[in-house]
Specification:
mainly alpha, hpI Integrase, Chain A, 55% helix, 6% strand, disordered C terminus
C-alpha cells in the first residue's frame, strides 16, 4: 500500500501507523513539532496534553523530503493545502487500488500499531503511552479486536499497577502538604 501511494499520502500513512497518530493530528503536524536530531514528534493530544512520540526510521527518512514552510507537513509535501475529507477520499481510492479490505480507515492504522506494540512488548503501559491515553481502559478498547490474546491476569495486573502508582502518588502529594510543626503541638 505504501509503495502505491503518492508521497504526501505515504507520509500520512506513516504518521498514522508508525507514530500511531490520530488522522487529524497527523494532518495538522508542522515542522515545529518535529525534532529531526532526536527523531521525536511533539503532539498535542485531545485534551491539550503534549506527548512525545518517536519517529521510526522510515518516517524520519520521509520527513527529510518535506519542503520547508509553516504549513502542515502533509500539505507541504502535496504542494497544496489538504483537508481531512480530501485526504480520506485519497486513502479510500488507494485502498481500492491495492485491494485493501473495504471499510479500512486511517484510524485502523493507529489500532494496528497498538496491537503490534502490544505483541512486541506485552506491556499495556507501553501501548498506553504510545497512544497518549490517560486511561488504561481506553487503551484496552484499542486492543478489543485482539482481546483474545490478552489474558485476564495480564489486564488485572496492569490495572493493579496503575492503581498502585496512583495511590503512591496521592500519598506523596499528601505528605508534602502536611502542616509543618503539627508534630510539635
Amino acid at each position: 500500500m505504501l509503495a502505491a501511494a503518492p508521497a504526501h499520502l505515504q507520509l500520512m500513512l506513516l504518521l498514522c501507523h508508525d507514530a500511531a497518530l490520530r488522522a487529524k493530528a497527523a494532518l495538522s503536524l508542522t515542522h515545529r513539532e518535529y525534532d529531526p536530531v532526536d527523531r521525536v514528534l511533539s503532539i498535542r493530544g485531545k485534551h491539550g496534553k503534549v506527548q512525545t512520540v518517536p519517529a521510526s526510521g522510515r518516517l524520519a527518512a520521509m520527513l527529510m523530503f518535506v519542503p520547508s514552510g509553516d504549513g502542515p507537513l502533509v500539505s507541504l509535501l502535496a504542494g497544496r493545502e489538504l483537508g481531512y475529507a480530501a485526504l480520506r477520499r485519497q486513502f479510500v481510492e488507494l485502498c481500492k487500488r491495492v485491494g485493501a479490505p473495504p471499510g479500512l480507515r486511517l484510524h485502523d492504522l493507529r489500532r494496528t500499531m497498538a496491537v503490534a506494540t502490544y505483541d512486541t512488548t506485552h506491556d499495556l503501559r507501553v501501548v498506553q503511552a504510545l497512544l497518549g491515553h490517560d486511561s488504561l481502559r481506553v487503551t484496552l478498547n484499542y486492543l478489543e479486536r485482539d482481546v483474545h490474546k490478552l489474558n485476564p491476569e495480564t489486564i488485572a495486573a496492569a490495572l493493579d499497577r496503575t492503581a498502585s502508582r496512583a495511590e503512591a502518588y496521592a500519598a506523596s502529594v499528601l505528605e508534602r502538604f502536611e502542616p509543618t510543626g503539627a508534630a510539635n503541638d
